[in-house]
Design the sequence.
């Protein structure tokens, strides 16, 4: 542990943060493009080549809009809502392993530097903790607006998040049982070959986790908290300007983080098929090691981008659930299913070990 | 450094705990309570008990307080909602505080507070593996009993929430 | 009792297990949307590309000149009579000696106004005109306006400009909409 190691870490953390924001920014653009393509349209194509400057134009618009606080709103909480949403969204990506290790011995760093913000041994719980805190931004904002629609949106968000958090963490337990660790990097390291990816070993858990991830991100078909047709804008009805922008942006960051978590937990993270073959072709020493890590990072981002696309694809395909359907699905289907999944996994592990 | 952090977290914890009691608006009370839980989790982290810290956040700050907030948001708490006698209310509050303080003085203060010796101290004691080993080897029966208790509470809640036969209202 | 032959009988049978799983149906839906994702887009990038207009489209009016550049209109008022929206008004005047190169007949329209708010672009004026003076162009739309005073088109904006007489002397531009329609029907062979 020396100064250079910490410096390298700081650079990695800054890079991860920047890339998170960049991808979230361009997710807004991608969302509009995907929506347009699925509806046989072209989508934004006026700002810059192929409309690539559209997110910047959107952000500029958001910044220059009037920042309005309703007269009877609770002012500080009204401001705290979007800030909390943004804060919890940004904090999550630091425990996700974006790649293997980098050999920076030419900089005088003797240790291998993992491409990960911090490798805590409770990484997955950290993600869950922040996800469960994420609902506060929505709740506080909705309550502070002093508006019935916002309050209804906030309450929907709260009950939805609590319900689906349960099924989500139960579906993860099966993976934790197989890996024997709560650290995400350990879980990724465990899936080092294609047939060992958790999606093959835990298909039911994967589907449960995927559905719950949609619900936790408040994405269609579970976007009841914002539900324009019933609640105008739900919890952000009263919000304008960059405060609204923060809420919308936090949703895209959450989407990025969920995609990263899904690919890390179920799709082998930065591992790719034929990795050992490629590793044999690489030059020996630090260069080959770093090249392989870089390839892993690229593969991981490819997986993340696919899942972001999948989120959008589903959004423009499926209609919104009704509220009682949402609750029935969560409590009567997903939770029993995930408990059964844990039991079956436990029995199989017991048989394999004995 | 760690000592400063400890003092800062303790100050914040006590301050927000006082604000829970003092603030007029129940929503603000709940938010201060959440802040208290955060500072407590911070204490756990400084003790290298990451698992307990995060579980405290998930369970208390993330789930239970959301439900608190959820319920309080539904209530329409106005000043005129309280119709009982102020005197009796204050009197019973004072009585309750006195009883609680009495318990504190009589039971907890004379109790032996364990002293950590640096020789025996294991920095890894708060990690998940050690915690699991301790729970499932030394405290297996109480642990399982507690889980049965939780299960029965859950079954009870489901029974209470179940719709009666023939009842049509949602 | 069956009221209409188009009534559909709704099936209220219980969903099978496969249907209650939702997932097969969702995957089917995803298949449909991804097919649309790669389909050819229907959007026309308007200012750069323009949709070809039908040859029988009735667009902005024009008051024609003849081959020598003289105004054809004699201010007979038949178009104003034919107009169901009463959008056309005119004031007639007598041609002075020395104005023969300007007006074809002895009488001409000193003022000729069409109120574009009233006009319904039905084309009855060009059907009524005995002098083939007024036409609805198939390639030009009445532009949008931002002021009510812009709506009433006078002769300054209606009369055909002198340049177009030299460039476009084709017979096509001298046909009424119904003539063009007959033309199109014969050309397409759909009659």
Sequence:
């Amino acid at each position: 542990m020396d100064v250079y190691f910490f410096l390298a870490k700081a650079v990695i953390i800054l890079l991860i943060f920047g890339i998170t924001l960049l991808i979230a920014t361009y997710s807004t653009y991608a969302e509009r493009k995907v929506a347009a393509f699925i509806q046989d349209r072209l989508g934004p194509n006026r700002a810059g080549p192929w409309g690539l400057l559209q997110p910047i134009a959107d952000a500029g618009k958001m910044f220059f809009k009037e920042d309005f606080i309703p007269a009877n709103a609770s002012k500080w909480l009204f401001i705290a809502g979007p800030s909390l949403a943004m804060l919890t969204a940004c904090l999550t990506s630091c425990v996700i392993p974006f790649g293997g290790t980098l050999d920076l011995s030419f900089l005088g760093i003797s240790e291998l530097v993992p491409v990960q913000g911090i490798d805590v041994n409770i990484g997955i719980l950290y993600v869950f903790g922040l996800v469960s805190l994420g609902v506060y931004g929505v709740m506080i904002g909705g309550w502070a607006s002093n508006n019935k629609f916002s309050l209804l949106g906030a309450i929907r968000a709260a009950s939805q998040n609590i319900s689906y958090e349960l099924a989500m963490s139960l579906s993860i337990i099966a993976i934790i049982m197989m890996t024997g660790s709560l650290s995400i990097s350990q879980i990724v390291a465990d899936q080092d070959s294609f047939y060992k990816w958790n999606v093959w070993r835990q298909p039911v858990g994967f589907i449960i986790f995927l559905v719950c991830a949609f619900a936790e991100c408040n994405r269609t078909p579970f976007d009841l908290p914002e539900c324009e047709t019933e609640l105008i804008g739900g919890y952000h009805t009263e919000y304008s300007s960059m405060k609204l922008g923060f809420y919308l942006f936090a949703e895209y960051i959450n989407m990025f983080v969920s995609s990263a978590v899904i690919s890390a937990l179920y799709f082998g993270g930065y591992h790719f098929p034929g990795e050992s073959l490629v590793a044999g072709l690489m030059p020996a020493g630090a260069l080959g090691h770093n090249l392989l890590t870089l390839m892993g990072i690229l593969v991981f981002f490819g997986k993340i981008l696919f899942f972001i696309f999948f989120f959008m694809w589903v959004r423009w395909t499926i209609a919104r659930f009704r509220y009682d359907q949402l609750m029935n699905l969560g409590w009567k289907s997903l939770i029993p299913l995930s408990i059964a999944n844990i039991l079956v996994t436990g029995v199989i592990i017991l048989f394999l070990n004995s | 450094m760690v000592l400063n952090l400890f003092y800062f977290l303790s100050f914040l914890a006590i301050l927000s705990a006082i604000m829970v009691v003092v603030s007029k608006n129940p929503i603000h009370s709940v938010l201060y309570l959440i802040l208290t839980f955060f500072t407590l989790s911070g204490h756990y982290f400084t003790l290298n008990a990451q698992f307990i810290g995060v579980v405290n956040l998930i369970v208390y700050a993330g789930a239970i307080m959301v439900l608190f907030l959820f319920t309080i948001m539904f209530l329409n708490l106005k000043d005129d909602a309280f119709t009982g006698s102020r005197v009796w209310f204050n009197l019973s509050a004072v009585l309750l505080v006195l009883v609680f303080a009495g318990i504190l003085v009589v039971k907890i203060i004379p109790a032996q507070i364990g002293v950590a010796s640096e020789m025996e101290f294991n920095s890894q004691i708060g990690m998940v593996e050690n915690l699991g080993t301790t729970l499932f080897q030394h405290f297996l029966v109480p642990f399982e009993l507690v889980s049965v208790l939780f299960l029965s509470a859950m079954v009870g809640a489901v029974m209470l929430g179940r719709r009666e036969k023939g009842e049509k209202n949602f | 009792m069956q009221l209409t032959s188009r009534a559909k009988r709704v099936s209220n049978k219980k969903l099978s297990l496969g249907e209650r799983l939702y997932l097969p149906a969702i995957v089917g839906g995803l298949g449909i949307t991804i097919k649309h994702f790669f389909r050819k887009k229907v959007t026309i990038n308007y200012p750069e590309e323009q949709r070809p207009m039908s040859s029988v489209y009735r667009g902005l009016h024009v008051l024609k000149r003849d081959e020598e550049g003289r105004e054809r209109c004699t201010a007979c008022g038949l178009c104003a009579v034919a107009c169901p929206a009463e959008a056309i008004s005119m004031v007639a005047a007598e041609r002075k000696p020395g104005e023969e190169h300007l007006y074809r007949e002895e009488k001409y329209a000193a003022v000729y106004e069409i109120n574009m708010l009233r006009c319904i672009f039905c084309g009855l004026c060009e059907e009524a005109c005995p002098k083939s003076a007024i036409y609805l162009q198939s390639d030009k739309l009445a532009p949008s306006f931002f002021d009510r005073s812009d709506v009433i088109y006078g002769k300054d904006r209606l009369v055909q400009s002198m340049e177009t007489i030299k460039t476009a002397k084709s017979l096509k531009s001298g046909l009424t909409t119904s003539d063009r329609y007959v033309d199109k029907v014969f050309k397409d062979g759909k009659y």
Q: What stands out?
A: Chain A has a mean pLDDT of 84.
